[in-house]
Amino acid sequence: MEEIQRKGGINLTLIGALKECGQAAGDRVIRNHLGEVSWGFYDFYGTCSILEAELKAVATGLRLCWQKNINKVWVEVDSKAAMLLCIQQDKGPWEVQYILESIHQSVNKMETQFSHIWREGNKVAD
């Protein structure tokens, strides 16, 4: 993280959430190299798995960074499974392959670093 931040990159902190009724959503918080919050986003995904919600949050966050000409991104995800699928360039389960393809395309265009963050340490995106 520190290496990307030293290079003027940003931090993208993500949460995918599944509500009691089976509806999913995702939050993203983007912080600059000083750790200051630059923007925050929320998306409603409808009925999907928690893994899908996490990966959709990653894909959308990376796409938004690219659109804003930010190509150095440290991504924090509170789902270790989602993080591993992103960094291993794995196709993953069939129901999320299209999302992973989008993530892998973004990762190949950008300088990225992924890490797992415990949900309790992820208060900024809650």
TrEMBL record:
Alphabetized PANTHER family for the sequence: OS05G0353850 PROTEIN, POLYNUCLEOTIDYL TRANSFERASE, RIBONUCLEASE H-LIKE SUPERFAMILY PROTEIN
Name under which the protein is recorded: RNase H type-1 domain-containing protein
CDD domains hit by this protein: RNase_H_like
Xref: InterPro entries: RNase_H-like, RNase_H-like_dom_plant, RNaseH-like_sf, RNaseH_domain, RNaseH_sf
Domain RNase H type-1: residue ranges: 22-126
Signal peptide start and end residues: none
One Pfam family matching this protein: RVT_3
Domain of life where this protein originates: Eukaryota
